Amino acid sequence: MKKIVGKVLCASVVVGAMFIAINEVSAAEDHLWLPASGNEQMLTAQQYTFVEAAPNEELVRVAAKYDQWLSSIRGNTYNVKIGGDWMELKSSQAAMYKLNDLLDVRVHLYEWSHRYDHYGPGKTKDQMSYANAELRAMQFDIADIKNKELKLNAPHAEVREVVRLKLPTRIYTGAEMLEIEAKHMADVNDSELRHYANEALIFAMENTMKSEIFSTPVKTAKAKN
Fold first, then answer.
1. Helix pair angle (191-210, 91-113), 10° resolution
2. Which one of 64, 148, 209, 219 is most buried, counting C-beta atoms within 10 A?
């Protein structure tokens, strides 16, 4: 019996090692995991026909819904926890804070699940994955995070801290965020990465609208009139 258990454990270790090795090889061959080539160019009209639209139709619909929702709560004030303190924010600022928080959650999910923040053959520790750099650049643009505040290749713990404590200084509508995405995806000739950008914004907008923060306003537009 002991021999059988020993063989099973040994086999498990071997399979585990093989799985890790396969993952590392796959990552090294994934151009989204590797640093940007530096040869990225604006997509031509023909190239656009072969990649996922960014924004795609679903995101356009969600952004329109988001803007309608923003209009419906305009003038209200909400309690939002910034760091460890509760603050009263106007509807548009509260929505932007929550959206930036959720966008960071989704961008980091891709970073973590695809091991974009790991390094190995073809990528040194201080180099960012192409996908991670593109998604973070879009995220930082929407959150108005400047280079002097935080480097693009900062560890996620630092990104999270800035997002958690930063009061929105720029308020974007859904339509304006689509323009930001389109700008960042203009030279991305990869449907997978364009899909991640779409899904990150869809997730952030949809879940901002569902957030409990907005279920009970501290003050309403009618109450102030």
1. 140
2. 209
Confidence of residue 20 (pLDDT cuts 50, 70, 90): very low
> With contact defined as beta carbons under 8 Å apart, do 209 and 185 qualify?
no
How does pLDDT run across 96-124, given as a tens digit for each residue? 999 999 999 999 999 999 988 777 777 78
Query: What is the total count of domains within the chain?
Result: 1
224 pLDDT band, cuts 50/70/90, is very low
Q: Which residue has the tokens 């959720």?
A: 102
How far apart CA 32 and CA 133 sit, in angstroms, is 10
The boundaries of the domain holding residue 161 are 31-224
**pLDDT tens-digit map of 168-193:** 989 999 999 999 999 999 989 999 99
Helix H or strand E segment including 61: helix 57-72
Least Cα distance to 118 among 100, 136, 132 occurs for 132
Q: What confidence tens digit (pLDDT) does each residue in 125-148 have?
A: 778 898 999 999 999 999 999 988
Q: How many CB atoms lie within 10 A of CB 12?
A: 10
Q: For residues 178 and 60, is the Cβ–Cβ distance under 8 A?
A: yes
Is the C-alpha dihedral spanning 69, 74, 76, 79 positive or negative? positive
The answer to whether residue 68 sits within a structural domain is: yes
Residue 7 inside a domain? The answer is no
In a domain, 8, yes or no: no
CA–CA–CA angle 51, 144, 177 (5° rounding)? 40
Interatomic CA distance for residues 183 and 168, integer angstroms: 21
Which is nearest to 111 in space by CA: 90, 95, 126, 133? 133
